[in-house]
Design a protein that fits this description.
single chain, 167 residues
Length: 167
């Protein structure tokens, strides 16, 4: 049982809030202990944008009513009606930035299907924007200009786990 571990390693206290204030290594460890993993950056973006390539998980227009933004802390997951993505994932835009598996690098200008990140680097990518941000551009599902060192933790950075699917 590692439920106590995640509570000690982060400021997460409420069962309905995102796991936050956790570094990349602890988030990766948590997912692996559950038999899951952190999503790749490409997987995260596809979950947020969908096959239509939306700007936000809910569509192409920003709505302050659909995102935890300009707040003083995170809010319960799914607390903003209508912000679920096409696959039913809540808060892919806002609430907390989310760690992904990839090391940061510039995107290739060549179109790719499910690109994998580099094998090493200095910074890990975070996606999705957070309650702490004050610019709507950070909420766009396509925005990828945020990264941090894997051993740093912030009250506005969390994670979600992903599972591989084999039909």
């Amino acid at each position: 049982d590692f439920s106590g571990y995640i509570r000690r390693a982060s400021s997460w206290e409420a069962p309905d809030h995102p796991r936050e204030n956790i570094n990349w290594e602890d988030a990766d460890f948590f997912c692996k202990k559950r038999g899951t993993r952190l999503p790749t950056e490409a997987e995260w973006e596809y979950a947020a944008r969908g096959p239509s390539g939306l700007n936000y998980p809910w569509g192409n227009n920003f709505s302050i009513f659909k995102v935890v933004f300009l707040a003083n802390s995170s809010k319960p997951v799914g607390s903003k009606p209508g912000n679920a993505s096409w696959i039913g994932a809540f808060d892919l835009s806002g609430n907390v930035w989310e760690w992904v598996n990839d090391w940061h690098r510039k995107y290739s200008p060549v179109a790719q299907v499910n690109p994998q990140g580099p094998e090493s680097g200095t910074y890990r990518v975070v996606r999705g924007g957070s309650w702490h941000d004050n610019k709507t551009i950070a909420m766009r599902a396509v925005t990828r200009d945020s990264w941090t060192r894997p051993l740093e933790s912030h009250s506005y950075v969390g994670f979600r786990c992903a599972m591989s699917y084999t039909p």
